[in-house]
Amino acid sequence: MRICLGYFLFVALGCFLIYTVLSGYIENSNKLEKLRRDVKEMAQVVSAKPGTQTESRFLSEIIENAVKKCVTSVWDDLYAIKKAMKAQEYPFIALSKSLSRIEERVNYASEDLGAKVISIEGQPVCPPNFLKRLLGMEFETNPPVQMLKTDMEAGNCFAFRNDSAIVTIKLSEPVLIDQIGLEHISKKHTPGEDSTAAPKDFAVFAISENRDELLGKFRYENDQNKLRQTFGIIQPIKKYDLLRFHFNSNHGHPRYTCVYRIFVHGRM
After folding, report:
1. Mean pLDDT over all residues of the chain?
2. For the residues of 19-45, what is the DSSP string, one character each?
3. What is the dihedral of CA 204, 208, 210, 214, to 10 degrees?
4. Predicted model pTM
5. How many CB atoms neighbour CB 251 within 10 A?
6. Cβ(103)–Cβ(183) below 8 Å
7. Count of CB atoms within 10 A of residue 217's CB?
8. C-beta of residue 147 within 8 angstroms of C-beta of residue 260
9. Which residue stretches of the chain have pLDDT < 70?
């Protein structure tokens, strides 16, 4: 019975995903493929857990309700499902590498979802020639779009001279923002094992038609045990899709600053 239930869930969710693609979400094909794998793995966990039919039906309803929501918020729901499954005492979930890969929250500042860099105020690490400046390619080597990518390899960052720059980005969707985050690579992966180029103090403004609203001033700590750090936004009251990041200092590097990845979490 549990095997049949798991198979039915997988088929039903697969059909839903195909319908979503045909309904206009083709541009999110990479995300949908990841979603398909995550849901399949969760269905397998549900079908494998020894227990009553009532428990399986309960978890099935949670999954079905989650995938009925718009695609860009599904990962938030999957995170909630994972927490609910743990609350139901699934002891093997902690050992499941499959479920541990599920992203905890949607990053609306991800290029994969459609986030874009609108403008840059800063100086490139290497002075550009006239042609590059004319074509707007000053930051060709380490462009700010690197902050919106998932690749955390050494050098794949937004690099700018000294310790200050301003970058305006457009999120993939207008969201009620409740968290801002930064992530840097580990010290052992940086050139010369020097992590002082990591950003330190920064501020984030939400851009609206009337005025810019300060979402907060934050400090990224150069903590090797916590490379990904998130900061809460107090009482978000409005949805925004345009943000301006002011990077104001680094951790002591005299020549340049590297910003590897930014996060913007919220609810649609």
Report:
1. 75
2. HHHHTT-GGGHHHHHHHHHHHHHHHHH
3. -20
4. 0.63
5. 18
6. no
7. 12
8. yes
9. 1-104, 126-140
Residue by residue, DSSP assigns 111-172 as GGGT-EEEEEES--SSPP-HHHHHTT-TTSSS-GGGGGSS---TT-SEEEETT-EEEEEEEE
> What is the C-alpha to C-alpha distance for residues 173 and 18, in angstroms, rounded to an integer?
22
Instruction: Answer yes or no: are the C-beta atoms of 220 and 184 closer than 8 Å.
Output: yes
pLDDT tens-place string over residues 145-189: 999 998 888 888 999 999 999 999 999 999 999 999 999 999 988
Q: What is the CATH number that goes with domain 106-267?
A: 2.60.120.260
pLDDT recorded at residue 101: 46
> Greatest CA separation found in the chain?
71
Shortest CA distance to 173 belongs to which of 59, 54, 75?
75
Domain range summary for the chain, segments of one domain joined by +: 106-267
**Which two three-digit tokens encode residue 134?**
């004319």
